[in-house]
Amino acid sequence: DYYLILYTLLKKKLEEVFNREKILFIGIWKEILSKHLTLFPEFIPWIYVKLGNLEGIIIDEFQDTDRVQWEAILPIVEDVLSRNKFFICACDPKQSIFQWKGGDPFILVEFIQRFSSYPIKVEVLGKNYRSAVDIVKFNNLFFSYINKNLELKRELLEELIFGKGKDKEKFEGKEEILTYVLKDFDWIFENVIQESVNDFKGEVICKFLNREKDLEGKLSEEEIKELIKKKILDILRDLEQKKDLEDVAILVRRNEDINELSTFLISEGFKVIGSSFLKIKESPLINAFFSLLKFLNYLEDEIAFAGFLSGELFESSSNILKKYCEFKLIGGNLSLVDFVKKDYPSFWENYIEDIFSAKKYLSLYELCQYIVKRFRLEEKKKKELAYLYKFLSIILEFTFKGGDLEEFLEYWERYSEDELEMPKDKSAIKILTFHLAKGLEFNHVILPLFWKEKSYTSDLGLVFYNGNIYKGKKENLSNEGKKGWYLEKAKTKLELFNLLYVGFTRAIKTLYILIPEIEKTKDFSRFEVTRVFNKIYSFLKDETENSSL
């Protein structure tokens, strides 16, 4: 209740500010447009005045359209069709991986039903212009096998939605839920068979990662990650030896994985382009580093000094800031700088004064290298090394252009992340999430099928179903509320198969799939994607000797 009240008050306050400042927040334009076009259809002629003569509408990636967006443009679509103009949408429900942002592939079904009186032409694009022959064959076999094998499909979906074994959840409406989700699955993967137009075979390589046989006990998540890193390194070294390292991508689930893997590969001597580098300004380590540089440029800047102390450059510095806050609460009147000089003279002399003295004779890049060594950042901040190396690369490039510290401080605050992005290198390994990889292609794709899914919970503890709102924990909901809860969970679980499809269809020449032996891992039930792949693969292996596998 508290969060809902807080949300309502905040929303109301934001709307007041937007109205007063005449600001249109980009996140709500579609709701405003939908509301006005529905209530006031006379706005449509005004839209044509602004847009000019509209001969037709084309929407790409239609499966990622959310319902509010669709309702916003639906009156215009209706008007276009009523005037015998055209409406074209390209939709692949198998690639619907943005449902967490509201993307709804089933809008297409509703569209076809709604406009059934119009001459609708549904064209299935069965040619694959990207991938090699064996990659297309593998995907045809893998996904069509799930779709036609009702027993396997039902077993997978039941396990994902209701759990298994002693953790299996009981719900009297289970059969209804499964019938509903099986129908959705069949529609999503209805047109999965494709034909490659390429004349090269390519390769799909499934690498099952097993621990040494003489070791016993369950693997930790970190141990599995180390196995995956080692296997990725082996693959890259092999490609490097074959002089085929150009255009390699590694697909991961989370931005944190990008940072960790980037750091590892950089330490092994590879050039890396990671999509999360665009978030370099959000790195706590880099922000603390930048605050220290600001302070070194002007020793009276106590805000910058506080930013450095509260950051991650020096492990004990946050305690210094905490002590200063306590000092101020009891009436202390020293500035932060004077407080540190008085109460922490060793820290001030050995670090701040030492670095400030070095600043007088070092270039900007040399100064930053000195700071890295002084605080032993490469040793202590291994998980942040990708960000650190990127930051140092930017500083090195800036130093080559003759820039000094003060100029760099202005440059860093003024320029956007996109402008800070380093030039692309064809030999650099690209590391990106499934969502960022969608629509892209790479010669070689490495796909570690190892990530832990979060336990499913409904947003704000609310369930919206059949025009009603149900509040509370799942076990306390009515049967109708539970039904809505499970249907929402089912949608998120269906998306897992879409993620696999997107990942498997990015490769041109080679697809490497890395599968750890999760049965020996702790908390293995949470690694759903690995379990799903293993189960499908086992069924296929028993029934076919297909060369793709």
Automatic annotation (TrEMBL):
Signal peptide residue numbers: none
Pfam families (alphabetical): UvrD-helicase (PF00580), UvrD_C (PF13361)
Record's catalysed reaction(s): Couples ATP hydrolysis with the unwinding of duplex DNA by translocating in the 3'-5' direction; ATP + H2O = ADP + phosphate + H(+)
Annotated protein name in UniProt: DNA 3'-5' helicase
GO cellular component terms, semicolon-separated: cytosol
Molecular function per GO: 3'-5' DNA helicase activity; ATP binding; DNA binding; hydrolase activity
Class of enzymatic activity (EC top level): isomerase
EC number(s) given by UniProt: 5.6.2.4
Superkingdom field: Bacteria
InterPro entries for this protein: DNA_helicase_UvrD-like_C, DNA_helicase_UvrD/REP, P-loop_NTPase, UvrD-like_ATP-bd
SUPFAM superfamilies per record: P-loop containing nucleoside triphosphate hydrolases
Gene Ontology terms: biological process: recombinational repair
Species this protein is from: Thermodesulfobacterium geofontis
Residue ranges constituting the UvrD-like helicase C-terminal domain according to the UniProt record: 183-439
Keywords annotated in UniProt: ATP-binding, Helicase, Hydrolase, Isomerase, Nucleotide-binding
